[in-house]
Amino acid sequence: MFPTRLLVICRRTGGARFLIVCLVAFAMRRAQFVVGVAMVFAFLVSGAYMHLRLHHLHQTPDAQRMVYRASHINMLLIGALNIAASRRARNTSRFAIAADRLAAMLAIAASGFFLAAFVREPLYAHLYRPWTRAAVYCTFAAAIVEVAASKTSGNFHGS
To answer: How confident is the model at residue 31 (pLDDT cuts 50, 70, 90)?
Structure first.
């Protein structure tokens, strides 16, 4: 199910090697979309878990409740970011494709970190949040790489 438009662009711009680069970029977009949908599903499952197993978090301490809720909403955030980034129009320059791949890998890694944050961090004492910290850094780096790729390729519509 490879888009014919991308195939035509790859043929015009550089032959077989560039075609492989385009195939990998397409696979990363597909992986990013699947991870985004999985994170939205994980958001729904974690909400059901907090509702059914933890009884609306009524008997949990305030700090632990805050960690659960923050980790829960972060899963929705990264899921939506992955879905939106996977559906965004891309430029065909080599730098833009490489930057998109890097940003996709960072966003996918952030998804794993946010998932680990929901499972592990409510158990830590003193609001220790190493998984969330790593996920936020990955998300920020992915956003910076996407903006840099858009700005250098001429697709940035900012002022």
So the answer is: very high
